[in-house]
């Protein structure tokens, strides 16, 4: 999952983009890039690694202009290591376009073939984002009629993107000389929110971003989410246009955003991530009450960071003390989104350390937001025992992850998923826990949607049902071989 942001401002935008990307760092750590538009010229800086270590003062100084966009990447297509796949992507025609993308396309093979053999467009990487940009550029080229580009021509091009492209995409594009275009796939799988503020002269400044916390911190009001299938165009002068560009839309946001990916202080589709995690904790507590003898549990502990709100609420619901027995090194990034199993495994130990005084002679209930590959939980259970725990019970605030996630989270092969071909008891034994309780899918659904207008979610990694309806067994088999590294 990546983080994207675009700003249309009345003053230099480089620092704002940098600040926004820092706030979105939890969505991707592989690489980052910023592009700005100064008149008809794009300035662009792309780097491997994270925002804080990457950008130098001289990079920032060159990023001139009042309009720009940025990206933090967590690779889901192609390779995390490839320099050629760092976003933004650029094409010089029509007009000059740069694009950032969060999501994952599922018809990349067909698009690659069509773009080369029919549209005669050159592709220089195996990134699906490069495909998305080229489909958009080709469609826009077909739309241009007069000397000046109109919002409707841009929106018609997005409509063509919706017709050709399958999968998930929240994207932001700069159109040289004109402005910034943002659009979201017809299922709204990946998030995108629009914000506005006023400068000292009362002029509008706009932002679109993956998460609302970017808006909060920049002093923007949340205007609304970009609707599924909708496109928004903001001119360089700050005039905003929008249009629904898809023939049919169904809002089905990715449930994994609420489980793990998004920051708790963000709100997506009108649903607070933090409140969702509290509700997940409460529902999981009820299930634990039904399945285990709760009086035997001495303490509830979260696996930092993402499990904290759920574990806190779970402990309160059960009336059991909540303790923090694992201490986290804040300088190690998120382990799940690191490329490569070796790095992930090493990082869990570097990242978390157990405090023996909290474990000695106790029956502990460890709560994590999810168990995906089982890398974290296996190490954690071992550490809890080493620290002196008598009994280690594990609870996952998400249901078993049994199916590949094809919409922008890197879990493409069933073989990697610890729960894919195992019963709950078998997973418990793999991770070394005395007992294991998973959230039910219905409870997760209710925890996310309760009190909101959202009636559908992408729950595919838990259920195997893919909302776009275009994910075939043949595609999933191909994915296993074309795995991102
Ligand atoms: O079963 P696994 O494959 O290990 O994946 C699941 C773990 O990975 C994530 O933590 P991560 O360290 O990425 O981030 P966090 O600090 O936000 O919890 C998630 O919160 C789980 O703890
Ligand atoms: N996680 C994402 O959104 C990744 C975007 C794109 N698929 C890439 O791999 O670069
Ligand atoms: Mg975690």
UniProtKB/TrEMBL annotation:
Enzyme Commission code: 2.4.2.14
PROSITE patterns in the cross-refs: GATASE_TYPE_2
Molecular function, one GO term: amidophosphoribosyltransferase activity
Keyword field: Glutamine amidotransferase, Glycosyltransferase, Magnesium, Metal-binding, Purine biosynthesis, Transferase
Residue numbers binding Mg(2+): 306, 368-369
Cofactor section: Mg(2+)
Cofactor comment text: Binds 1 Mg(2+) ion per subunit.
Pathway note: Purine metabolism; IMP biosynthesis via de novo pathway; N(1)-(5-phospho-D-ribosyl)glycinamide from 5-phospho-alpha-D-ribose 1-diphosphate: step 1/2
SUPFAM superfamilies: N-terminal nucleophile aminohydrolases (Ntn hydrolases), PRTase-like
Active site location: 2 (nucleophile)
Database matches in InterPro entries: GATase_2_dom, Ntn_hydrolases_N, PRTase-like, PRTase_dom, PurF, PurF_N
Catalytic activity: 5-phospho-beta-D-ribosylamine + L-glutamate + diphosphate = 5-phospho-alpha-D-ribose 1-diphosphate + L-glutamine + H2O
Domain (Glutamine amidotransferase type-2): residue spans on this chain: 2-237
HAMAP family per UniProt: PurF (MF_01931)
Functional description taken from the UniProt entry: Catalyzes the formation of phosphoribosylamine from phosphoribosylpyrophosphate (PRPP) and glutamine.
Family listed: In the C-terminal section; belongs to the purine/pyrimidine phosphoribosyltransferase family.
Name of the featured protein: Amidophosphoribosyltransferase
Organism: Gulosibacter faecalis
Lineage: Bacteria, Bacillati, Actinomycetota, Actinomycetes, Micrococcales
